[in-house]
Amino acid sequence: MRLALLGPPGAGKGTQASRICEAFGLLHLSSGDLLRAEKLKNTPVGKKIRDYIDNGRFVPDELMIGIMRSKLVSLVRQGFVLDGFPRTVSQAKSLSDMLDALNRPLTQVINLAVDPAVLTRRFEGRRVCPVCLSVYHVDLMPPQQNGICDVDGAELVIRPDDMPAVVQTRIETYHQTIRPLLAYYRDAGLLWDVDASGTVDEVWLAIDARLAGQEV
Ligand code: AMP
Predict the structure, then answer these.
(1) Which three-class secondary structure string do you get for 124-156?
(2) Considering the domain 2-114+172-215, what is its CATH architecture?
(3) Ligand 1 in contact with 48 (CB < 6 A)?
């Protein structure tokens, strides 16, 4: 399987991607996590992308594609789930070229569609670990100990780009760019829409049933 997950910020792409990878033995590649790691390490790329991420705007295609290109080659043998990439038609076309050159095209693109009211609630409760980047939700996916990461005991924080004003920009940017991307993958016969307004388990059941059916 070689999958890409699409959906607005807060749709649960990262959470579902992790579950898919665990169930089907795939590798998870999150463009947001990659960018945040570069930002944290303060690399030359990290410095370039800081303002884009913190203000909820897309990192320029050229830069984003370059970062993904260097990672993709190591993923194709085992199979993968891309989470947060592609986000524009230009990225989708470059991805298709890269994967065709490796003779491993995408097998499916899963679009997680979510009711806007549900999205707002999810953002309000999202917390992340600043050390290992694990994601929690105060009500929907709480850590064992309030405000503390289960993995490394660090104090959980609100991601800077989860602040309400920035979330608004991220959701608007998403809506401006998603239509042509969905059309691109629908035309390619790869798109599968999933209603992702339910709980993590409900959405996972829908995805798992469909993917397990395809595996045989
Ligand atoms: P995410 O964690 O997927 O919500 O991504 C966080 C931020 O990283 C986004 O708001 C963008 O600033 C940036 N980003 C992530 N993926 C991409 C992408 N494919 N293209 C451009 N910017 C991206």
Answers:
(1) HHEEECCCCCCEEECCCECCCCCCECCCCCCEC
(2) 3-Layer(aba) Sandwich (3.40)
(3) no
